[in-house]
Design brief:
disordered N terminus; 306 residues; mainly beta; 18 strands
Length: 306
């Protein structure tokens, strides 16, 4: 049985890496799980894909995130500053008269800025275990390929192992289906809107860049999800009220963290910039990956073998 421990670095709410605010709420809070494993009466498999020839793929660039008053309140009655998933008051800007929050003070991975790229992915996720448990029977098989905005680099992300117990919040045993997270839920960063989700996974993966695995390319934390549309016609990240469940898209996120395993079969997250090798106009290498896939197909199969 795995032992999951909380790293001392979680004492801070946000990590500021290369001037970019990185929310720590990428995974769920670690607890000592002792209850018996809970299994659904019927396995639920979500299978999805995106063909490079059929739709657009977007690389999200660092930038400020506009702050929704439903999630973050007002300077007079602030909300959304919870440890690990929220935004501290010092990291927010206000309007001229100080009556409303406007944006984060620093760039984040949840901006309105993007670049069109080419890419494709395939995902099969099996949800068996309802909640976090070291012996979770959830499973994921994920592979994505895409290029950098300047066309100079190619990437391959592969995940074949779930993260069974979260380190900052629940990860539903590694795979969750038909649920809501982010935003006001307390599950995941509040910079993302409160998001109705068809399927989400938290896994441990490998990143290949230009045909090779960099030194920090292994044991990467990978979060993927298929959700209601959280981007408007201008591809701005919307507030809660404008989330559109008549459309869906896929999010792939590699935050700047790796999973560090211990000799006792436990693990923790350590700060580790994603080795994207993509240099931003300010001369800084982008330390995270946030890729959006549109025009996807999604199918559900029940009673599959995990």
């Amino acid at each position: 049985m795995q032992n999951v421990r909380r790293s001392a670095r979680w004492a801070a709410l946000l990590v500021i890496m290369a001037g970019i605010i990185i929310p720590l709420g990428w995974t769920l809070a670690a607890t000592d799980v002792t209850q018996p494993i809970t299994v659904l009466t019927s396995n639920l498999v979500q299978s999805t894909g995106h063909d490079e020839q059929e739709g657009d793929v977007r690389w999200i660039l660092p930038g400020p995130r506009r702050l929704d008053s439903l999630v973050f309140g007002t300077p007079e009655t602030p909300l959304g500053f919870e440890r690990d998933v929220g935004v501290p008051l010092a990291a927010r800007l206000t309007n001229e008269d100080g009556t409303a929050f406007t944006t984060t003070a620093n760039p984040t991975p949840f901006s309105d800025a993007f670049a069109l790229i080419r890419g494709s992915y395939e995902l099969t996720a099996i949800d068996v275990t309802l909640g976090d448990h070291p012996d979770s029977q959830d499973a994921v098989a994920f592979n994505a390929t895409f290029n950098s905005p300047d066309g100079q680099h190619t990437y391959d992300v592969r995940v074949n192992r779930v993260l069974p117990v979260g380190l900052l919040h629940s990860v539903f045993g590694g795979v969750g289906v038909n649920m809501i997270h982010h935003g006001r839920t307390g599950i995941g960063t509040k910079l993302q809107p409160t998001t109705p989700t068809y399927v989400a996974f938290w896994g441990i993966g490998t990143l290949t860049v230009d045909g090779r695995v960099p030194a920090s390319g292994t044991d990467r934390l990978v979060h993927g999800m298929i959700t209601c549309n959280v981007r408007n016609a201008n591809y701005e990240l919307v507030f809660d009220v404008d989330v559109d469940c008549s459309q869906i898209h896929t999010h792939l996120m590699l935050p700047p963290f790796q999973i560090l395993f211990s000799a006792s079969d436990g693990y923790e997250e350590i700060a580790s910039p994603v080795p994207t090798e993509f240099v931003l106009p300010n001369g800084i290498t982008q330390p995270f990956l946030h890729i959006m896939f549109e025009n996807i197909t999604l199918s559900t199969i029940t009673d599959a073998e995990p």
